[in-house]
Specification:
Layout (H helix, E strand, L loop, with lengths): L6 E2 L3 E4 L6 H9 L12 H18 L3 E6 L4 E9 L8 E6 L8 H15 L7 E4 L4 H9 L3 E8 L3 E7 L3 H7 L6
Antiparallel strand pairs: 1-2, 2-3, 3-4, 4-5, 6-8, 7-8
Helix pairs in contact: 1-2
GO molecular function, one term: acyltransferase activity, transferring groups other than amino-acyl groups
Protein name: GNAT family N-acetyltransferase
Keywords: Transferase
């Protein structure tokens, strides 16, 4: 099993997903908040989604982290790097658990994940896929400096917007403060 790195931000800890995350994961996927990412889903389907998140790491060498609110230890989201079969290219994605929206956590964790992708993995660019009705995710992409690039048709999720993040060179030249 590969070692999944832990990343700390001022308020969050990005760590490996684990079985103890399942109750929060299942609650999220059972809720209407998951409508843009494959939910609502049953507990059995949610378990498979958690296993998929964890299994993505050894298959691709990267994945999405379970994001804890450091002060409380509560699971705030699942955020990171994602490229399952059928995706147009590697993506930076974010899902926040119920009750953690509106605090800037998605942006904070996604910036850390993008820094890992560019700095550690050597990526030069990435995208985020956003459902057309998902105003919250679109706002996160914009806060991170991503720009609308076009549309993508996914066999299960339907039509998705492609948001292109600034390249690693653009961030090095202009600094992240321009996008935060």
């Amino acid at each position: 099993m590969m070692q999944i790195p832990t990343i700390s931000t001022p308020r969050l800890t990005l760590r490996a997903p684990e079985a103890g995350d399942f109750p929060d994961f299942a609650a999220f996927y059972a809720s209407d908040r998951a409508k843009f990412v494959g939910g609502p889903a049953t507990e059995e389907q949610s378990w498979r989604m958690l296993a998929t998140e964890l299994g993505h790491w050894p298959l691709r060498g990267y994945g999405r982290w379970a994001v804890e609110e450091t002060a409380t230890g509560k699971l705030a989201g699942i955020i990171g790097l994602w490229n399952p079969n059928g995706w147009p290219e590697p993506e930076l994605g974010w899902d926040l658990m119920n009750g953690f929206e509106g605090k800037g956590y998605a942006t904070e964790a996604a910036l850390a994940a993008r820094e890992y992708a560019y700095g550690t993995l050597g990526w030069t660019t990435t995208i985020s896929l956003v459902a057309p009705a998902n105003d919250g995710s679109r706002a996160v992409a914009k806060r991170m400096g991503a720009t609308f690039e076009g549309m993508f048709e996914h066999e299960r999720h339907g039509t998705l917007e492609i948001w292109r993040h600034p390249s690693s060179d653009d961030l090095t030249d202009g600094g992240m403060e321009a996008y935060a």
